[in-house]
Amino acid sequence: xxxxxxxxxxxxxxxxxxxxxxxxxxxxxxxxxxxxxxxxxxxxxxxxxxxxxxxxxxxxxxxxxxxxxxxxxxxxxxxxxxxxxxxxxxxxxxxxxxxxxxxxxxxxxxxxxxxxxxxxxxxxxxxxxxxxxxxxxxxxxxxxxxxxxxxxxxxxxxxxxxxxxxxxxxxxxxxxxxxxxxxxxxxxxxxxxxxxxxxxxxxxxxxxxxxxxxxxxxxxxxxxxxxxxxxxxxxxxxxxxxxxxxxxxxxxxxxxxxxxxxxxxxxxxxxxxxxxxxxxxxxxxxxxxxxxxxxxxxxxxxxxxxxxxxxxxxxxxxxxxxxxxxxxxxxxx
Length: 333
Hints:
Number of helices: 16
CATH class: Alpha Beta
Distance between the termini: 31 Å
Family: Belongs to the sulfotransferase 1 family.
Largest sheet: 4 strands, parallel
Radius of gyration: 19 Å
InterPro entries: P-loop_NTPase (IPR027417), Sulfotransferase_dom (IPR000863)
Order of helices and strands: HEEEHEHHHEHEHHHEHHHHHHH
Pfam families: Sulfotransfer_1
Structural class: alpha/beta
Number of domains: 1
Mean pLDDT: 89
Strand content: 5-15%
Strand order of the largest sheet: 5-4-6-7
CATH architecture: 3-Layer(aba) Sandwich
Keywords: Transferase
Protein name: Sulfotransferase
Low-confidence stretches: 1-7
């Protein structure tokens, strides 16, 4: 699909009615013009669409974490699809030993196998009908874009593992701009780079501000390194073998020496590679229940793509913000 062409607007971005339970809460929140949806609402310091926020509030109220859960957390457009594939393959490698022949990732999009809490599981549920997740086999694997302050208490108070992924904000912004333009209704046209850039710099983007989102998880990963692993997209790209083995150890299923000798690490990396996943028929032609075409999640997956779009002034502005917000805390991209 050409960049900028409209797609079916996913349900978490649609301007549909929210349940009465949350309507009054949402009505009191600050709001701004959205990138795809008409409005973004600021809740606990971060921005959400109306429907998405219903999922956030329901998830906060009803989700009960298990100590054995694994939760993938990411800033939007930071390699979430790739990390979901990695983690699913790691946790289930003994169940599906024929990695390159008979594996769910060959016939299912990673987002179908690792659901978002607030965007998939809780978005359509109100106080009277939360999803029943208690009987799912352990370890349960979920994902979210929620900032740390908005995680359900059961997550922060349990021993479950949190794997956080972020990316250079310049690349994250460009990827988000392309992605949201694919989802915008045709009658609204594509958002200009300049318009989106101003919003992103102000922090008015899905789950933004980007820098506050990243900084909170950075601080918490330093305080609780056994609970929260802080990962960068760039490290996944540059040293995948090393990072995958680190991830396996963190989530409690390290590779044995025999597995490494048998090439299991390399098989998982090949299965989950951008080239392999993006060329599967399911990811070329499939669609998520929420409405997005699977192919929308596979654009380029490269480091430094921002150089093809940002002006010198834009680059300097983003770098300055990043240094001010993160650099002083020892976090640099």
